[in-house]
Sequence to fold (201 residues):
Amino acid sequence: MTATLAMSVMSAQTAHAQSGAGADKLVRQISVEVIDTAKADKAIQDGDIGRILALVETKVMPHVNFEVMTRSAVGPKWREASAEQRGKLQAEFKTLLVRVYSGALSQVRDQTVEVTKTLPVQGSTQVVVQTEVRGKGEAIKLDYRLDKAAADTAWKIIDVNVGGLWLVQNYRSQFATELGKGGIDGLIKTLIERNKSAAKS
Fold:
């Protein structure tokens, strides 16, 4: 019985590791399209934030699971939020993440992106696709955590690691502080103010 169970687990892990091939293909496709578009668009090269945001919105965001990302960042308090509050949290968190990602993209000049490794996340249906943005100077690590609920669903990005920092994990600690001070509504208010401030800069 134990041997059979072990074989089943090993088979499942092997199948999951192999299934990561679709995830790295998706990340490579997104990266190439974004980088190539950024390099060919003079407005983006000149720092036009509107064009950068539009590029991220059309090329990257359709492949992101914002509900999972927001739920992970908010933590246990997510269960206490109403449907309306959850919608507001997702919308504001999406705006925040788009601007963070766009800020990194605004630095793109003659770089290329290489997928270096795809690793299954132990005990889950997730994989981490590791990439490097290479150009002049030191390469920048940009990793993606992806998941899919079932074999017939598409891979979705649920976290991004920029230069060694996982964004969702980083925001979780920040959000915990705001939730402790003002609850769900306090966090929503803080996100709205932060996004308004970023839009003016």
